[in-house]
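Hi U.,

Before I forget, here's the chain from the pilot set. I'm dumping it here mostly so it's searchable later in email.
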Amino acid sequence: MLSRSFAALWMTLSFIISQLSFIMEKKAFYVLKDFEENLKVTSGKNYVAKCPKCGKWNLYISKTTGLYNCFTGGCDFKGILQNFLPERPTAGATHTGEFYPKKNKIRFVAETSRAEKDSVKMLPTDYKRLAPEPLTKIKRVTEVAETADLDEQAARHYLSAMGISLQTAALARVGYLTTRFTNPDSKAENGETLHLRSLAYVNYVNGQAVNVKYRSCEVSRSTPKDNEGRTVFMKYWNQDSPTTPCAPYHIDCINPLRVEEEVIERLIITEGEKDVLSLLEAGYRYVISVPNGASCVPSKAFEAFEEWLAPVNDVVLCGDTDLPGRTLVKKLADYFGPRSLTVQLPADCKDISEVLVSYGVETVRSIIDGAQPLATDDIITVEERADQVLEVLQGRYDKGYEVGFGPLTDRVFHPTDLGGLIIVTGKPNSGKTDFLNDLTCRLMMKTGRHVCYLSFEVPDKNKHIAQLVRLALGQVNTARYTREELEPLMHYLHTHMVHLDMHEVSPTPAHILERADRVRRTMPMEYLVIDPYLFMEVETGRYSSETQAIKAMLTQVQTWGRAHGVWVVIVAHPRKLMKLWGSNDTEDIDMYTIAGSANWANLADFILSITRVDEEEKRYTRLDMLKVRDQDLCRKGTVVYVRQPCGRYDERESVEQVVAEMQGVVLERDVGAWMK
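Structure:
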């Protein structure tokens, strides 16, 4: 007994002497030669050396950056080899020993004020070491065959139920203990205190314990078994963490000093620590878990480890299948972008841990190895569109619909149900709104389409609806019609049109589309008419120029229209037109005379110009189709119309025909109601 005490005392004294010796011999900087007697030269990107402080072979030295770090718990020997220093630290700054590797360049982080520190990115070395007290209470899971420790027995029972071997648990340095939890369901003022046997997931950064999460591993007292006979465990947890936010669990697995590969082909990210163990059990090395489960904010969780994540090629997102889990996967996919891959779990499994328990390791591997890029409508392959392409090749596709004027108009304006952006322009008082009224009324009455009007220049909505009734009837004077005769027509319009006003919110593109979405969710919509663009509040402050603001607006409305099969019609005024030399006439309107930006011409699917000719010998309206994006169905061209007293625009074959009819001849097709 005395000899054992003496041996223990001698070991303690030896350790103290070695530490004192290290302190006395410690140098400001080290070079590789200082370790050559205790250095293992490897074929990988790191050297492995004996740590001069703790004496363990856990010192890793990067061959490319010169960073070194001892991964022995409790040892904080770390830094950078002197010959890798790019420059001396800033004069007056206190060197903290922190480093930031990026593309083989090193930048030292000097101690700064709190205000300055808030403006810089968090680094792995910002994670404070966990206090010794919690660690002294935690015992490690071992691989010995049997144990008399009741806490370890409970931990082993939990791990076994989860399909986790002792070897995997020991490799992950899983601990166990009896610890205190607060029952949130207790009626006590401060909650009921429970002392439960628990697992301890100790997390490490640079080999140092930075936080620990405790998870109860005792069997539920109220429901020990579920409907399928599986053991149900109490769902209590808490944690010790001196740094916020917590580091992702098992993040040290991608520590640059511990990874030999230049590129990590796949990193798996899970929602919880248990899932990490399940994937380690399946043989995967690079697995981490987000801190704080589904409530994780990726930008905060991974900020300090961006450089560690940089060598990762693919990120497999293996979240839970419930709503919070799916939401987390979406957030992670947005954060990691095109590197993201997702998995498909069996319908009866909530997470990958349940897959391991229910189906085994092989199924887990099949799921992870079968991870696919996140599905998106933005990537279109020939295979997925094969049927639709064959229909096009065989002539079976949407050939558009007639808008109701006649064959001449159909030749230049023949829309489909795809939706998009239509621009209507013309000189002031040329009849743009008047022509649109007739066009949209024909669309409703003759094709059954639905129209939503946002007409800033039509303050009296009653008169606008009344004008649509007159157009449908082909009558100027409707006073002779009875209520019974008019109500069916008004009911039809009620089911096919609606007006928007922008009194409650400002008429920004976002607000307009939000209001239009409300309409679209309650009734069909094929046309959204914005008349005119001048009253829209384009958010110029967010962009460097008016041109960029207009481009953003047009892209926004066009994308929305195509997404929902809606034609967004915008009435846009031309810029100030130049007078022709020696005449009072102005230049003709083309695609590029619309005020504000050439993007009107670039982004529109249709651009049509309305011109009113009012001369003594000829009076007519001319439609010039200036742009047609899909010329398979219609082409650019010109159509002339005679405006009838009721407001109808009836197409004519030529200006000469208009002149011939100046005596008031009305064609038979130009009379009669559109609705019987």
